[in-house]
Every structure is written in structure tokens, then in C-alpha cells.
């Protein structure tokens, strides 16, 4: 492109070499797009924070993930489930509300009641999940796909 | 005269030869998106392959953790497929994606400005073992030197330079919104950042 300093090409190469995207990223995005329910009307929550308390070892300790949309905040705590290769999810949504929560994992889904802003799923396989919220008084909400 | 000559309308279409210069990926992205909107379901995969690495670098400029970057990029793709009609000009889809990702990255980073956010200076660049080829080693060596120079710039410079490096058609109006800088100051800031970077590279700005 005319007028562009060639040093930008060097910078580009530098970032490509030293801070490349994770190897799984492209395939993960293709999968996320393919799994999107184009007919569903909902608002998309955004991940604002994800922390593993035992740093560096994914799934080894409680994991907290926070999502937000507009004035809504969803906090999810992931711990080891009762069975091998399973997780337990505890979640809180504010403003406090009632409704239904669906956790979609692979082709299966688990439904849980949302009571006074709280929900729990006692056992769910590890892997990629997506959570849908059908709450009173507002549009449906959904998280993006994320890993537990 | 033979009718055969008219059966080869070479001028009808531009040569589909190898993409040239910076326009390559942008044009390919626009074409893939246009085909997807016209019903070619597989074309979205091409678009995702083309643009996801670019989005990664743009979003990483906001010093977000890997997981959060990934989420911002996913947000960008889901927003595109859900609101495809919002893209007025399919040929400009690459710019639309970059602006959407940058805006979201800005939103997320200002919501959670964490003390332990990824720090460019302390982010020790580690090369994958597979990149052992000599040419790549040389390239990596040059990149390490440049990385060290960039690390001496302030955060605003680093972010601006990384964004522009991966945005073939940077839009200063949108960048000014996302970086919280007046639009008129982006050109001069860009120049100052480059001057500083050159000074560091040539040793003038180095302390050692």
C-alpha cells in the first residue's frame, strides 16, 4: 500500500513469529461459526475475565469465568465433578432473576433452574460448552462457546 | 477469421493470478464473504481462515489474556454471521471485522483493567521448537531485536503500531474512538512512535 512505512512489514513479521495465535484458534472459530443457531434471537454475553486459581494448570483448580452484557453479569465457578472427566458448575447472574439455564455440550444439553439468580449443574463432561439463559423479563442471553 | 477466438474472453475478468501486495487477503476476504451471503455455506470457513490470525494480532494489542482474546474474536465472528446484513459493503468485510474486534477488545479491556494483564515487556518470546530452520532462526533473531526495541515504547505507541501493522487499510476515525485519541493526533502520534522506534533501533534511544 502506498505511503506505508516498510517497517510495518517488519513489525508484522515480528508479531507473527513471537506472538502467534494459538494453534487451535482458527479451527475453534470455524466450529463456533458452524454451531451458531442463526435463527435464535438472543443477546451475546462477553467474557470479561477468566482465571484459574492454580496458575498454568487448566482444570486443576477452581476456575472462575465472568461474562457481561449491558447491565447483566454472569459469574461461573467451575470445579471438578463427582465423576472422572466431569465438572461441576455453579453460577450467579445479576440482576437477580428467575428462569431456566441450558448448558449445551456437544450434541447434548443439561437444563437447570435459575432461582434467585443462582444455578448449578452438578456434573457435566469436560470440553466445550455454551450456556443459554431464558430469564424473566428480558431477551434470552447466551455465552459464547468456552472450555471447561 | 475464426469464431474460436471469441470463445476465449480473456478480458472479461481480471486475472485470478497470485494475489499481490497488501490487497491480497483483503480482497479474498471480501470475495469469500460475498459468496457466503449468496448462499455458499463453505465460504465462511475461508473467511475465518483468512482473517482470524489478523484479528488475533489486533486484539492482542489491547494486552488481553489469551482466553479473553479468543472470546473477543469469537464474539466478532458470531456478530458477523448474526448481523451479516449490517455489513453494507461485502468487499469491506475485513475492515468491518477489525473495527468490531477492536471495539470489543477496547470495551473488555476497559471493563477489566487488571494489574496482572499480559505485559508486553515481560512477555518472554518463546519460539516453538519446530521452527528450527535456519532461515526462520535468522528471522526470529531479527524479530527479537525488534521486539526489544518495541518494548521500549510506551503502551499507546505499541498498540497503535501493532494495530496499523495488521490493518492494511487503517481507518483513523475508528482508531481514534477505540484508542481514546483525537483523530487529528493519530498521524502525528504514528510518526512520533516510528521516529522513537528508529532511534531505539539505531542505538540513540538505548541506555546501554
CATH class of the largest domain in chain B: Mainly Alpha
Largest sheet of chain A: 6 strands, mixed
Q: Quick check: average pLDDT of chain A?
A: 88
Computed over alpha carbons, the radius of gyration of chain B is 21 Å
The helix fraction of chain B, in percent, is: 55-70%
Structural class of chain A: mainly beta
Give the ordered list of helices and strands of chain B.
HHHHHHHH
Number of domains of chain B: 2
CATH topology of chain A: Immunoglobulin-like
Q: Give the count of helical stretches of chain A.
A: 2
- Strand tally of chain A is 11
Helical run tally of chain B: 8
Count of structural domains of chain A: 1
Overall geometric form of chain B? globular
Shape of chain A: globular
Q: What is the rounded distance between the termini of chain B?
A: 77 Å
Write the layout of secondary structure elements.
The complex is a heterodimer of chains A (148) and B (208).
Chain A: H1 7-18, H2 25-34, E1 43-44, E2 46-52, E3 63-69, E4 72-80, E5 86-94, E6 99-105, E7 108-114, E8 118-125, E9 128-135, E10 141-142, E11 146-147
Parallel strand pairs in A: 1-10
Antiparallel strand pairs in A: 2-3, 3-4, 4-5, 5-8, 6-7, 6-9, 9-10, 9-11
Chain B: H1 23-37, H2 43-60, H3 66-82, H4 93-111, H5 134-150, H6 155-166, H7 172-179, H8 183-201
Helix pairs in contact in B: 1-2, 2-3, 2-4, 2-6, 3-4, 4-7, 6-8, 7-8
